[in-house]
Amino acid sequence: xxxxxxxxxxxxxxxxxxxxxxxxxxxxxxxxxxxxxxxxxxxxxxxxxxxxxxxxxxxxxxxxxxxxxxxxxxxxxxxxxxxxxxxxxxxxxxxxxxxxxxxxxxxxxxxxxxxxxxxxxxxxxxxxxxxxxxxxxxxxxxxxxxxxxxxx
Length: 152
Prior knowledge:
- This protein is α/β, with parallel strands linked by helices.
- 42% of the residues lie in helices and 25% in strands.
- A hairpin with a 7-residue loop joins strand 5 and strand 6.
- The protein is globular and about 35 Å long.
């Protein structure tokens, strides 16, 4: 299972992109997919330096393909208030899908997860739901209904 209710973090009070990326790395350690959260954080930053991962207003998809991750996972973080994602377009982020993939599975697994999330983000109804659903349990049920079965 790529995503579970324990990987959904609603109503987070994080105020910078740096805080969000550190939060993702810390959660990767907590759920047991890395023993090196510092390296995961560096790998997330390395990807951000290539091109900011805010894909549209209020939505970001930071991701890392790294030796420091043992198992592919998707985390979702929703912030209480949008933050500047430091993108060329000036996008803010509030709903954040973090994709963490082992380097050995990078090409296939990473693209599968990214594709499923990105396709859904084209739908305004999906965007609205991920920004407004009140509980992790409700959000998990919504994701089960909308993401491809292999991700859930």
